[in-house]
Model the fold of this input.
Amino acid sequence: TVTRDALGVAGITARNRIDLAYALGFVHAQERFFQMDLLRRDAAGELSALLGPAALPADEAHRPYRFRALAGRIVAGLPPDQRDLLEAYARGVNAGLNALEVRPWEYLLLRQTPRPWTPADTILVVDAMYLDLATPHFNAPQRARLYATLPKPLVDFLLAPDPRWEAPLQGLSATPAPVPAASVFDLRRAPPAPAVTTAALRTALRQDAVLGSNSFAVAGTLTESGAAIVANDMHLPLRVPNIWFRAQLRYPDPADRARWITLDGVTLPGAPVLVAGTNGAIAWGFTDSYGKWRDWVRVLRDPADPHLYRVPGGWARLRTHREIIDVAGGEPVAIDVRDTIWGPIMAHDADGTPLAMDWIALHRRAVNLDLARLETARSAPQALALAPTLGMPPQNFIVGDAQGRIGWTIAGNAIPLRRGFDPMLPADFSRPGVGWTGWLAPQDYPRILDPPGGRLWTANNRVVGGAWLTLLGNGGYDLGARAQQIRDDLLSRQRFAPRDLLAIQLDDRALFMRHWYLLLRDTLTAAGARGGNLAELTRASDRWSGRAGIDSVSYRAARAFRAAVIEATLAPFVARVQARYPSFAWPSGDTREYAVWTLLTQRQAWLLDPRYPDWNALLLDAARKVADEFAAAPGGIAAQSWGRRNATRIDQPLAAALPAPLRALLDQPRRELPGDSNMPRVQAPAFGASERFGIMPGHLRESYLHMPGGQSDNPLSPYYLAGWRAWAEGKPTPLLPGPAQHTLRLLPAARQH
Done:
C-alpha cells in the first residue's frame, strides 16, 4: 500500500522487505526515473548517449573507472538476500515505469526511450555518490607539483592547517607551522615570478564548496524526554528535483512478525534503502569524512618495453581497455583506458611519471546493501557495530537512541591499511612492503560512545588526531570554522529540544569572517580621504551585522576582500608552479587561511610579492579591487548586498536548453538567502543543505525534516516544488507524514483478478 500526503511524502506498507523494495522501486520510477537514469549514466560515463555531445567531457572523465563492469562483479558477489532486494527493486522500477501512461517528459524532450533498470544500476547510483564526494582536484599530484617547484619548508607552511579554527572530537589541534626563514626562500632575491593572469590565478586558487554536511547530536541527559536528538543536513549541489526522496517505510520485523519496523527519513532514488533518518529506536545521519580514500601510484615503465611496468617482484603488462562512448546526435567516441594492478592511469607525477589511482571505490567491497541492517538496530552501540560493514563512501556516522545514548564512528567498510609511504604524495608501490596491505577490521575503527559532555559534532573537519588520524588520513578536510561554531552552539546550552538543533542548523553568524571585516575596515580607515570608490565602499560597509544576512553589504565586501588578499598573497607562488605545470590547481580543502593570515599578522617582507612596497600596499590594492568591482556592478557599491550574490539558482538540468518561459516553469523561483560556507547555515546559489532534520527517537512527532525541493520531477505534479518554501524559510516541517490524500495498492499478479 502506497499513500501520499499533502507534500507527496510516500508512505509504503508491505508484508515483507522484498515487497517493500518492489514498491519503493515502483514509486521512485514514477516520480524520479530521469534522475535515477542520470545517476547511473554519470557513474558509468554514459551520459552522452542520452544528452548528446555536451555531456562528453563528463563521460571522458568517468569512463576510465569502468564502474559498469565493476557493478556487474559486485552484484554477482553480494549475499543472496541482498541480490534479492536489488532484483525486487529493479522489477518495481520497471513496473512503475511501464505503468506510466506516457514516458517521463524529459525523454519526450530528448526524443529518447528510457532503458530498463537492472540490479547493477543501483550499484552505479552508489558509485555516483563516490564521484560526488571525491575531492574535485587530484590532491597528491598537485602537492607534488608544489614540492617540485618550491622549497619543502615553504610548501609545508603554505599547506598547513589553521589550529585556531579546528574543533576535533578527539585529539588536540594542530601545532602551528613555522614561517620559513628568508634563507629558505626570499621573494625579493628570487628571479621574478612569471606573469599570471587574474583568470588563471583565480582558476588555480578556486576552492569549490566542501561537499559534506553537518551532523551533530545531544545525549538524553540534556533533553526533557531522556532520548537523544540527532540533527543532520547534508550539503550537496542543489537542483530540481532534489537528490533525496522522503518516505515512510513499514514492514513486519523478520525476527518478530508481531512487531513492525517503521522507517522515516530520506531515500535515494535508485536504491532500495533508507539513507538517513530513524527506525523509531535510533536515528542516524552522515557527513563526508574527507579521509584519504585514494592513493596515487607511480607506474614505472620498462625502458625497453613501455607496455611493461614494475610491480613487486618483477614486471607486469599494462592492460588496455577500448571504451566506446555513444553520443546522441553524433559519432561514437573511443577512449583507451590503461589499467594496472592498482587502478587506471589517470594523471602524471611532477616528473612526468604516469600515476595510477588506487581508490577504494574501484574495489569490489566498496558497495553493498548492509545499510539495510540499520533498519533493525535498537541501540546506538548496535548501530556503531554495524557502521564499519556498510558498503558506501566512508562517512562520519552519528547515531542517537531512544535511551539517550549517542555515538560516532566511520561508516564504510573500505579503510585501507597503508605501509611504507607518505599518502599525501604519489608513491612507488613496486617496492617491497610499500602500499596497501589490507583493510581495517571493524573492531579497530575509531569510535566514540557516550562522550562525557553529551555532545557530538562533525562538519567535514578533522575529527580525530594521533593514531586514529594516521588510519583515516587527510583527503582535504574543511577548515573547521563551521564545526567550531556548531560545537560552541552546542556548548552554549544545557537543555535541548529538536527546535534548538534547527536553530543551530540555521545559524548564519559570520564569526569566521569577522577578523577579515576588521582588517578591511582598518585598511579603508588607513586609506583616509582618498575619495572615489574606496570612500563609497567605506560608507556602504560601515555597519557590521555579524551575519551573512541578505541585506549585508559589509559581509559581502569582507568576503570579497578576503579572496582578493589570498590571491595577491599567494600569486607569486602559484605563478612559479603554473610556469612549470600550467594545469596546477591549489589542493582541495581550505589550506590557505593559516599561511595567509600568519603572513598578514607577522608581515615577513621576504614572502611579500616584490611588486608591493609593504603589506599595507597589498591590502589597499585588494580593497581597491573590491571597490572597483562593486562599483562596476549594476546599482553600484551600495547595492551589492550578500543576498544579491547569494540568490538561489536551483534549476532543472534540462531547463537551460529551453526558452525562458519554459525555464520559469521548471526552475525554482529565485530567492535571496542568508548563510555561507564557514558557518552552520551553508548556502550558495546552487549548493547547500539537501535536507535538514532533527530527530528524537521515540518522540517522532516532535521531530522535523524538510528539503529544498518537492517529491516529483514532473512540473505538472502538485508535489513538484511542495515543501521548498519551508526549507528556504527554515520552518520545521514534521518528520512524520500527514494524513493520506491518495492511496495506491500494488497486488501480486495472481490476486488482481
